[in-house]
Structures are given as structure tokens and as C-alpha cells.
């Protein structure tokens, strides 16, 4: 259904449109809540594309140039052979269709096989039930809870810490 390909600065229009939808950015990076103008989004994407310390790929519909999100691994540590997974599916028409699980599985494989990682972790907002399920299907296990670590919609909620180890995926 999807393929991972490099992001380019000319993809900023997609992100700008997605960032205007509060539901899309509800459980995403806090910075997404603050990017209000197209020029701010372009600057953010330029920094993201040029960040050499993060593995990131655009999520495209297979055999098209239709971008629906992006995913990758940040905070890469060659010493600890670890990193932190992230995913953002901006096109809501692909929510709940297995895209998150497919992307997560592909990025984990790249992390273990191409980047030489042993452990990949993530944090996810507890109310993001779809995200939690996708991560579990891809092999992530619950490690712990960061109590009231996120403030959205006028209330605090917990963030879950999850991880997957290379040896767990065979």
C-alpha cells in the first residue's frame, strides 16, 4: 500500500495543510501546534530534511508521489545502538487502515538491519489508542508510563513508553 521515500522541501504544502487540522496534530509533536504560517512550516521542513542525525522518510502511496505522512528514527545513538521511533500520518483518510502498522514494521526493519540498532523506543499519548495498537502489532512492548506528561485539550494525560528489541523480532 505504501512505500518510504525521501522527503523534500517542496513537500511543505502537505504539512502546512495537515497542521491546520487540530485532530491531525492532537497527539503529535508540540512544535506542530505552533507552526501557524506556511513560511514557518517551510523552515521546519527544511531543518527536518537537512537533519543528518535522524533517519526519516516520507510515507507515499505505492507507485505515486502522493505524500501521506512521514516516519523515522531520531536520537540515534551509535554507542547504545538505539533510537526513538516517530510517525506522523497527516492524511486522515489513511487512518485505521493498517498504514501505521505497515510503516512501523518497515522502519523497525531498517533500524535493525540497515542502521545496526538493537533497541528502538517511542512514547505515545495514552489516549492515542490507534497508535498504541499499531505499535503493539509491530512488536513494541510497554515499558512504562510518564504520568501527566502531555497537556492537550485542557487536560493532562499520560505518555506510554514502549520499545522493541532486535532479538524479539527474530
Rg on CA atoms, Å:
15 Å
Number of domains: 1
Tally of alpha and pi helices: 6
What is the SS-derived class?
Answer: alpha+beta
CATH superfamily: Gcn5-related N-acetyltransferase (GNAT)
Round the mean pLDDT to the nearest integer and report it: 93
Tell me the strand percentage band: 35-45%
The helicity comes to: 25-40%
- Largest sheet data: 7 strands, mixed
Q: What is the rounded distance between the termini? A: 24 Å
Low-pLDDT sequence parts: none
Question: Globular, elongated, flat, extended or rod-shaped: what is the shape?
Answer: globular
From the 3D coordinates, which CATH architecture would you assign? 3-Layer(aba) Sandwich
Strand order of the largest sheet: 1-2-3-4-5-7-6
CATH class assignment? Alpha Beta
**Overall strand count:** 7
CATH topology: Aminopeptidase
Secondary-structure element series? EHHHHEEEHEHEE
Amino acid at each position: 500500500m505504501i512505500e518510504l521515500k525521501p522527503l523534500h522541501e517542496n513537500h511543505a504544502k502537505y504539512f502546512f495543510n495537515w497542521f491546520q487540522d487540530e485532530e491531525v496534530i492532537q497527539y503529535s509533536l508540540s512544535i506542530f501546534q505552533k507552526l501557524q504560517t506556511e513560511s514557518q512550516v517551510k523552515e521546519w521542513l527544511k531543518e527536518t530534511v537537512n537533519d543528518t542525525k535522524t533517519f526519516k522518510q516520507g510515507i507515499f502511496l505505492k507507485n505515486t508521489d502522493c505524500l501521506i505522512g512521514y516516519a523515522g528514527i531520531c536520537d540515534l545513538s551509535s554507542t547504545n545502538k538505539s533510537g526513538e521511533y516517530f510517525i506522523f500520518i497527516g492524511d486522515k483518510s489513511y487512518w485505521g487502515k493498517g498504514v501505521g502498522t505497515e510503516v512501523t514494521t518497515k522502519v523497525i526493519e531498517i533500524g535493525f538491519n540497515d542502521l545496526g540498532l538493537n533497541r528502538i523506543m517511542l512514547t505515545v499519548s495514552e489516549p492515542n489508542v490507534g497508535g498504541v495498537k499499531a505499535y503493539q502489532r509491530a512488536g513494541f512492548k510497554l515499558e512504562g508510563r510518564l504520568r501527566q506528561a502531555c497537556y492537550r485539550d485542557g487536560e493532562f494525560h499520560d505518555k506510554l513508553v514502549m520499545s522493541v528489541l532486535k532479538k524479539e523480532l527474530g
